[in-house]
Write a structure and sequence with these properties.
The complex is a heterodimer of chains A (about 350) and B (about 250).
Chain A: E1 9-11, H1 15-33, H2 40-65, H3 74-89, H4 94-116, H5 121-140, E2 151-152, H6 161-188, H7 190-200, H8 202-207, H9 212-238, E3 240-241, H10 243-246, H11 250-262, H12 267-284, H13 289-305, H14 309-318, E4 328-330
Antiparallel strand pairs in A: 1-4, 2-3
Helix pairs in contact in A: 2-6, 2-9, 2-11, 2-12, 3-4, 3-5, 3-9, 4-9, 6-7, 6-9, 7-9, 11-12, 11-14, 12-14
Chain B: E1 8-19, E2 22-33, E3 37-41, H1 48-56, E4 63-68, E5 71-72, H2 78-84, E6 86-88, H3 101-112, H4 117-130, H5 146-159, E7 164-168, H6 176-191, E8 195-199, H7 203-206, E9 212-217, E10 220-225, H8 227-232, H9 234-241
Parallel strand pairs in B: 3-8, 3-9, 6-7, 7-8
Antiparallel strand pairs in B: 1-2, 1-4, 4-5, 9-10
The chains are: A mainly alpha (about 350), B alpha/beta (about 250).
């Protein structure tokens, strides 16, 4: 009680997380140059991985951070592809169509959120599935799509196969990087704290001044936009558009799988989950129905024995945080801080950690 | 009682609240001045928590109006009322379970009080310190015991910088020592000119803070005034001891 005690410090990153941030920059730089060394097949596979990472990160943000569990996110995947087809048909450059399409998906999701976000929990989850099924049927009515016969992003064929492959790879890498950076920035800021508060208790969040609906809407629209980009990129890699492939609930099932296996509610978990899913698909994808049985069995085993997923478990056991979005308070000196003295707290220092 | 300028900071008039056929609040009128400390007592089911919920905006009244700082806030949701300075705690604690104690309080400081990052850090740490929670600042709220959860309710509400704080049974289940600390904390809030409405069953700790006492029974206010006088009121004694419907 003699001298004024130094004030606690709020820490955002750790020594490990600063190293991780540098590693992330290096990995992205390496990935950007990778098409020069990889085979055509490998470039395509890597593009798929980037798309999976986007899907997992978006579903994780929505469900793991925001508590908005949806089983209808394929609606935005399908619409991302569909609007790209429409825009390219109207004469827009096919590459530009991919991103304009995603923006339109984001815009469309806004009015959708007006009534979907009134639903809670299970109602919201199933409601989104209904929306997806309904949208699928509506898209089938478009003559351009020719029902389930489908159509193609024909205008992409003016580029030769090699250029096309590399450009799509870079676009996917850039989209993934940008979306992860936006998401990380959002979740790490005070809006991110509000998002997690809403997940944990909506009424309590409102009672301490959090704008519940507006915050949920922001997250919902961002997730729609991100998944829209993923759908459009998927269209670019596969060229053909058949509504039933894109509006299939399997896409959301994959998102859930990746997030649960990787670790729901941790930023690193979704990325790790996407990588695990990608490897399983690469190694066992050719085994037909057994691949699906294996995926299902893996999901069951994880929910039984590692309910927090791979990264959730690592975090719990070793206290390892590579891309932390939370806040740690470090008390100066002995942790048993003297209480009761009413001296105003001196300024806090904060440590910043930048990410690409 | 030094200040005769009794400008009402909060005024609820003709409040009715029905859940289906059940009338929980029946024509309640309640007015308090800024910088007043009002205790609310009454048997279980008297409508105390419901009144607090109507005042804080958790749900709207079936009829009646709520005015705060001179404006009609009846249609305002809890978020907006909190930002105006009318903040409540919950009888059954509602922590953000997946977040740390500090993060729980930080949300209130940055959104409820609308502070920028550094100011919000300072406010959050200040509230935690005042409530004796700095030692558990990094614990996930789901790992806290009941006592700490109740403290967290108070710390979180304080970080939203209330002008008027609505407390719902934050003293329940405390030992005498813990109750003493709580009273000290609330006296500190009084020194900071924060108005208090406090529902509490443990009357002897309530009376250490309350300058005015209200007794509710069956959805009505049956007594309102100087605490000792209210406790001696025959109707209050009957509500407590001769309870049950007549």
């Amino acid at each position: 009680m003699s001298a004024a005690s130094p004030s606690p410090i709020i820490e955002r990153g750790t020594a490990t997380s600063r190293i991780a941030a540098i590693a992330v920059v290096i990995i992205i730089a390496l990935l950007a140059t990778a098409p020069q060394f990889l085979s055509a097949g490998a470039v395509d596979r890597m593009t798929a991985l980037f798309i999976y990472v986007i899907l997992a990160a978006m579903w994780n943000a929505l469900a793991g951070f925001g508590g908005l569990v949806s089983v209808g996110q394929q609606v935005f995947f399908g619409l991302g592809a569909y609007f790209a087809i429409r825009l390219a048909d109207a004469g827009l450059n096919p590459f530009a169509s991919l991103f304009v399409s995603a923006v339109i998906v984001g815009i469309v999701s806004w009015p959708l959120s007006l009534f979907m976000l009134r639903l809670r929990n299970g109602e919201f989850a199933i409601g989104m599935w209904v929306i997806a099924a309904l949208t699928h049927l509506l898209v089938n009515l478009d003559r351009l799509v020719q029902g389930e016969t489908g159509t193609s992003l024909i205008s992409l064929n003016v580029y030769d196969a090699g250029t096309r492959r590399t450009v799509i790879y870079w676009l996917a890498l850039a989209s993934m990087t940008a979306l992860l950076a936006i998401l990380f920035g959002l979740l790490r800021g005070s809006t991110g704290a509000a998002i997690r508060a809403i997940r944990d208790n909506e009424d309590a969040a409102a009672s301490v001044g959090v704008r519940v609906t507006g915050t949920k809407r922001l997250l919902f629209v961002l997730a729609a936009l991100g998944i829209g980009i993923a759908g459009a990129l998927w269209l670019a890699t596969s060229i053909t558009f058949q509504p039933k492939t894109y509006f299939n609930v399997q896409w959301t099932a994959y998102m859930i799988f990746m997030v649960l296996v990787g670790g729901i509610g941790t930023f690193e978990g979704a990325i790790l989950g996407a990588l695990v899913f990608f490897l399983i698909e690469t190694w066992f994808g050719g085994t037909g129905v057994w691949y699906l049985v294996g995926l299902g069995a893996t999901a069951v085993l994880f929910s039984l024995f590692l309910p927090r997923g791979l990264w959730g478990t690592v975090e719990e056991r070793f206290g390892l945080h590579l891309l932390p979005v939370g806040y740690r308070v470090r008390l100066p000196g002995n942790p048993a801080t003297a209480l009761g003295d009413d001296a105003p707290l001196p300024r806090q220092t904060t440590q910043h950690q930048e990410k690409a | 009682m030094t200040d005769p300028q009794q400008q009402a900071v909060l005024a609820a008039t003709g409040i009715h609240k029905r859940f289906g056929a059940l009338v929980v609040l029946d024509a309640v009128d309640f007015t308090m001045g800024a910088d007043e400390a009002v205790g609310i007592v009454g048997p279980n089911g008297a409508g105390k928590t419901t009144l607090l919920s109507v005042l804080s905006g958790a749900f709207p009244p079936s009829a009646g109006t709520v005015r705060f700082k001179g404006g009609d806030v009846t249609a305002f949701p809890a978020t907006q009322r909190c930002r105006l300075g009318l903040v409540r705690t919950h009888q059954v604690p509602k922590p953000f379970s997946g977040m740390t104690t500090f993060e729980n309080v930080f949300v209130a400081a940055s959104h409820g009080a609308g502070l920028g990052r550094d100011e919000a850090y300072e406010e959050a740490l200040g509230s935690l310190k005042l409530c004796g929670m700095l030692g558990v600042a990094n614990r996930r709220a789901e790992t806290l015991g009941l006592l700490d959860r109740k403290r967290l309710e108070l710390a979180r509400a304080l970080a939203a910088r209330p002008t008027l704080l609505l407390l719902d049974e934050i003293g329940g289940g405390l030992t005498d020592g813990e109750a003493g600390e709580l009273v000290d904390t609330i006296k500190e809030l009084r020194r900071r000119k924060i108005g208090i409405v406090w529902i509490e069953h443990i009357v002897h700790i309530l009376l250490q803070v309350a300058e005015r006492l209200i007794c509710m029974d069956a959805g009505k206010i049956i007594a309102d005034g100087e605490p000792q006088a209210v406790m001696a009121d025959p109707e209050v004694v009957r509500a407590y001891l001769g309870g049950g419907p007549k």
